[in-house]
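Journal club side-thread
Mid-discussion, someone asked how the predicted structure for our own chain would compare to the paper's figures. Pasting it here so we can look after the session.
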Amino acid sequence: MKLSQNDFISLRTITPNRFAAFLTREGWHRLDNVYSKFIAFEGKSLALKENVEIIIPDSNEYVDYYARLIDAINLLSQHFCKIPGEIIKNIIQWDRDIHLIRIMSPANNELLSLNFATGIIAKYRDFFAYAACTESKPQRFYSKLSKSGKEFADNCCFGHTFSGSFGLTIECPLPPGTQRPLPGVSPLRLPFQRAVTERIATGYSDLRDAIATEDPSKIIDNHLKGFSGNMCEILTDVYEMLNGCDIENSISWATELEPPDQLKYASAHVTEISYEILRVASVELQKLDEPEEDKTIVGRIIELKSKAPPLEDQEAAGVSRSIVVKWAIDQTNALNIHIDLPIQLYRNACDAHKNGRNLSIQGKPEKRGKFWYLLDHHNFEII
């Protein structure tokens, strides 16, 4: 049976050790010291009703390695009564969930620039980091990445590309020792890596439902199990970076650990419609509780910005002066709040910054675009 183009691409990732590990898991017996410079296994073929030997070179540096590997996979295809693509998937993906991202070609068929490509990968890195952050401590949004989120993203791998319009993969390895549960029995506790992938899959499913009903509340109401505000915002950022190119997101699950039936085929297609839904969900999820009430902002001034020297006696027309205060919402979260100030209060803020003193001010925090601002502020005080 012929292999597809994507099968040939995946085939390049199969090392002799990975192939040998697959046969060992399937109960084949390794024949040691039988063939020099080869790996040999023997197994009872279900299809051929006899013992069969599989032999491949012990290094993928040999010129005939991949030809021998294809022969072996075709033989296993007969043995397991599966197409070669399924055999290849079982070899390379038994211990990792793979996220597939396909960026559809622009109408004019232009290629993506390197700046776009690296920017998109950086955005998806943040997407996975915030997914882990949300799984560790579910909440509506996060002002900064947690340590667990950063560590999870660091352990993800950039996988091989696949045929199609700018297809790329991100691999999330499961921890060593993950075992397939008994048929019909759910695992007592999911590995954290799988729990993060299931959260992403849930978010994809919520997005599809939201598109069908043209209502973002499905995403907003299910943020404890699916997307947080940060995850929604990152997907809208990617769509904007690509100038409206559609993005297909899907998941290929590790064969060692079956996903829930309702998530097995979870995917999401980010288009103009889904972009608007994600944008609304992002704004709603990143609103602070009780936004109509004033908040007391206490923190240190980390940035000062003025379009004119603050030493002038009179307020110049059209001159904006602002500061940024790092406001600790709780022990783990802090927001950078932008505050526009009149000249005298701006001077006081300059002195406070110079002397290392904190600021206390009341007002209504509101997110506009990428930044938080304090509106209707009053009770400015240096403490």
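Post-session note: The radius of gyration is 27 Å.
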